[in-house]
Amino acid sequence: MTAIELEGLTKDYGEVLANDGLTFSVDTGEVFGYLGPNGAGKTTTIRMLLGFISPTAGSGRVLGHDIQDERALIEAKRQIGYLSDEPGFDEQATGDEILELHAAVKGDERSDELLELFDPPMDRKIREYSRGNVQKLGLVTTFMHDPELVILDEPTSGLDPLMKQRFAEFLRREKENGVTVFFSSHILSEVRRLCDRVGIIRSGELVTIEPIETLLTRSGKAVRIQSEAPIPLTVLDIDGVHDLETSIPGDVADVDPDSAFTECTFTYTGDINRLLTALSEYELLDLSIEEAPLEDVFLRFYGGENDV
Amino acid sequence: MFEFLRYDGRKRIKGSLYLSVGLAVLAGMIIWIYPSFRDTFDEDELLAAYPQEIIQLFDVQTMTSLEGFLAFELYVFGWVILLGLYFAYSAAGVIADEIDRGRMDSLLAMPVSRRRLLTEKFAALGVPIVIVNLLLPPVVLGGGWLIGESMSVMDVFAVHLLSIPYLFACAGIGLICSVAFDRSAIAQRVALGVTFALFLMQSVLQGTDYEAIGALTPMEYFNPNEILLEGTYDLGNAVILLAMTVLFVVISQFWFVRKDI
């Protein structure tokens, strides 16, 4: 079954095409990362799914309900938790009062457990809250009615590293309990820890949808080699070596830095055995092969933009 | 049902009490200065001293009785103008403020229709409207008693009761502005401007060929002089004001449901 379905969903503001014919679906029980640079149109998609803005073309369904049918969408919202990218609560109210309103409208199945986990200061007024505390209260109100589907817009913004960690663990447990998660982010490392599949959006258009493993395989490895004696550059003349950077200390005499190296780093997307065979006849001081940061992958495969 | 009405209503209680205290002070002052006016001027000497335009603008009938004095100083000025503007202004924040401060998403993510949210938030304005009109009659009557003037208890309660639909209608004007403009500062300014313009229109056009246009304004249907001086209560007027309010709410709903927020 599909939790979210988009069919050519479009939002055209005239001067800006915020979402351009988006078609994809999110399966029930899946954690789907919706990824893209700031301003790519992630929030626009989310706000259309929740009926805050109406599409100019195309259609969408959440939990089987048409997003353009208000009554149907309200039915769906009983089972949806939503955290906006900048959650806003009545500044004059205390956390407790906000929670009470949410509980009265959509029910409260588990706020105690959530309050223990995220711990926003409930007796203080919202206007005294820090950005992080607002986010924590937002997380509590998002999950308190034990929704089947949660839609999270940049959920970790404002959280400190400890809370980010706690949130990641929490989300993993939710996934095990069968909750479907759709979350947007511009931070790839976050997505990689949590998601099954990733959809990448750029300038309102869907660039690709891939399982996270595929993305990681495509991403290749970050390789670092160090040796005592210079190694000829031709050794690395094999498929799958990208972004090669080499260096050689000045005190190694008679070696052309353009033809040999004692230290190098590169990204490798080829067969790892082939690389090791090529290096096997040289004496190495150190060799490290690590997963490449997803940021690099993104840049390599989808063209460069600095804010991802 | 009514969760948002309860929530907003509760939030408005404190403000309603402050508003009542403010108006009680205003009423107290007006009643307190009345005896010196009464003793200084004969008949309607004071009234005659006012320019004709002011008399028409505020629909001043007489100042020789406490009722006439209050009708002008307190009810036309305090209720028709000040409170009318105040509730138009407050209502203008009902939707626009939530959008402006980024709170609307959190509200509409809950399983609630836009129509219901708007209606309940508007209805919560009933809290200050009713509280003010419940607390002020005893103040006015007590003040009159203290300066040795007797007033019709019925009339005083009637003027307050009949002001309730009037104030709701003014709030309805604000509500439309609240839906029409995303920025609450603009919505509130427009609401103030429109309400005051309607007041001017109604009073200035009176007695001219264009008098009929005044019939489109809420001010036409709430007349403190008539109630306090003649003791006539026109319930038809109250019905018209309620119908206006419903119309304003329905227009706002229609608009809000179709709007991108």
From TrEMBL, chain A:
Quick check: keyword Secreted in the entry?
no
Q: Which residues form a coiled coil?
A: none
Keywords associated with the record: ATP-binding, Nucleotide-binding, Transport
* Alphabetized InterPro entries for the sequence: AAA+_ATPase, ABC_transporter-like_ATP-bd, ABC_transporter_ATP-binding, P-loop_NTPase
GO MF annotations in UniProt: ATP binding; ATP hydrolysis activity
Gene3D superfamilies referenced in this protein's UniProt entry, alphabetically: P-loop containing nucleotide triphosphate hydrolases
Pfam families recorded:
ABC_tran
Q: Which family does it belong to?
A: Belongs to the ABC transporter superfamily.
The protein in question is named ABC transporter-like protein
Organism this protein belongs to: Natronorubrum sulfidifaciens JCM 14089
UniProtKB/TrEMBL annotation, chain B:
Q: Which Pfam families match?
A: ABC2_membrane_2 (PF12679)
Alphabetically ordered keywords of this record = Membrane, Transmembrane, Transmembrane helix
What are the TM regions of this chain, as residue ranges?
16-34, 74-96, 117-136, 156-179, 186-205, 238-257
Query: Which Gene Ontology terms cover its molecular function?
Result: ABC-type transporter activity
Q: Does the keyword Transmembrane apply?
A: yes
One cellular-component annotation, GO: plasma membrane
Query: What is the name of this protein?
Result: ABC transporter permease
Say which species the protein is native to: Natronorubrum sulfidifaciens JCM 14089
Species lineage: Archaea, Methanobacteriati, Methanobacteriota, Stenosarchaea group, Halobacteria
